[in-house]
UniProtKB/TrEMBL annotation:
Domain of life: Bacteria
The protein, known as: TlpA family protein disulfide reductase
Location of the Thioredoxin domain: 51-190
Coiled coil: none
PROSITE patterns: THIOREDOXIN_2 (PS51352)
Record keywords, A-Z: Disulfide bond
Pfam families: AhpC-TSA (PF00578)
Molecular function terms from GO: antioxidant activity; oxidoreductase activity
Length: 191
């Protein structure tokens, strides 16, 4: 009987090994719905899951970094630029001076709203960063990710350009350049 026990153990181990190899081989060849298509860039994949151009921008209200309430309403009749950012995002940091300049020079023509992705960062870090660099634009705290979800933000930075009718006319994935900002501002303001 003792001779049969090692033989049974070897058989069971061999069976499990074959079953494991089969499972791995089968899974490897099966298409996965969560995988990005291999012929898409990261930017194309993110864009394919974003709000479509010409769709209505969702309204929102957030607590602000400076204790105020930060609101966006598509019915305001004023074009808007909504930027999603975090303090750990280097591209976000590089584009902030551009957005501050627009806020300082065109806030009567265009709303500038910065949405801090607080659910991915820390509120204190955002407050310190805004204070350290003296930024004055409205900055809301998306503590639960609700607004990021409404706008389908899956990478940072992302900037939405919204016309006076509340429609998204441009969605910038990645760092905003002066050229893109100038082009989109011209479309928003007609100048």
């Amino acid at each position: 009987m003792d001779k049969k026990k090692p033989l049974l153990q070897i058989f069971l181990l061999l069976f499990l090994a074959v079953l494991t190899v089969y499972a791995i081989w089968s899974f490897r060849d099966s298409p996965s719905k969560s995988r990005a298509p291999q012929n898409m860039t990261v930017e194309e994949y993110i864009a394919s899951h974003a709000l479509p151009k010409q769709s209505q921008a969702p309204d929102f209200e957030l607590p602000g970094i400076a204790q105020e309430t930060v609101r966006f309403s598509k019915d305001s009749g004023k074009p808007a630029i909504i930027n999603f950012w975090a303090t750990w995002c280097e591209n976000c940091k590089r584009e902030m001076p551009l957005l501050e300049k627009v806020y300082q020079t065109k806030r009567d023509q265009v709303q500038i709203i910065m949405v801090h992705t607080t659910h991915l960062d820390r509120k204190e870090a955002a407050q310190q960063y805004i204070k350290q660099y003296g930024y004055t634009f409205p900055a809301g705290l998306d503590t639960d990710g609700r607004v990021s979800d409404l706008y389908r933000v899956s990478a940072l930075p992302q900037t939405f350009f919204i016309d006076k009718n509340g429609r998204i006319i441009h969605h910038q994935i990645g760092e905003l350049t002066q050229a893109v900002l100038d082009q989109q501002l011209s479309r928003l303001t007609g100048s």
